[in-house]
Write a structure and sequence with these properties.
By secondary structure, the chain is mainly alpha-helical. The protein is built from 6 helices and 2 strands. The relative contact order is 0.16.
Length: 186
């Protein structure tokens, strides 16, 4: 579960990213950019699947699994009018996802509290479409964990650990992509 400290850190970071131009909101929305993110995510996941099925390179299973998550997250952020740029784009993407999902959870909970019966069905539908709020923390933690693991994996792990963790990365990426795609439907 995401700690309040991690959410606070992400909020502070996102404000800095906005100020420094690493996260932008003032750009023209282009469907082709959204589609490019989605296509890169799908292709990365497909490559990870191929590598996993054929037991080829635990390193690249992990890397391509992570990148499928990275690209689909950027697609969701772009769909929500945010664009990530700059040299620390992986950290920016993760922090922006944390903040965005935290805001969505509060929005759904707020609708349930403020409008009660009339809005209950709409909020319930939105919550189900956006992802079950109890699962959101796990989804976010998956991206953050895989981002860190990818870096460690490339330089520090032995072969036996790499193979086991590569399969786990691929399975997490499949679930992550499925959940993030729900956010693109709206």
């Amino acid at each position: 579960m995401l700690s309040p400290e991690r959410i606070k850190e992400a909020k502070i970071n996102v404000l800095t990213y906005l100020r420094d131009g690493l996260l932008k909101t003032d750009r023209e929305y282009r469907k082709d950019i959204l589609n490019a993110y989605i296509e890169k995510s799908d292709e990365s996941l497909e490559v990870a699947g191929f590598l996993s099925e054929n037991e080829i390179s635990s390193l690249w299973i992990t890397v391509t699994s992570y990148y499928s998550m990275y690209y689909i997250t950027n697609a969701v952020l772009y769909h929500m009018k945010y664009e990530v740029s700059g040299e620390i784009s992986h950290k920016v993407t993760c922090d922006a996802l944390i903040l965005t999902c935290d805001a969505l959870i509060h929005l759904v909970r707020g609708k349930l509290k403020n409008n009660l019966i009339e809005e209950f069905e709409d909020a319930q539908d939105e919550a189900l479409q956006l992802t079950n709020p109890e699962e959101v923390d796990d989804i976010i933690l998956t991206l953050d964990y895989e981002r860190k693991k990818r870096s460690k994996f490339q330089y520090e792990m032995d072969v036996e650990i790499k193979h086991s963790r590569a399969k786990t990365s691929f399975e997490r990426a499949k679930v992550f992509n499925l959940e993030m795609n729900k956010l693109l439907i709206n």
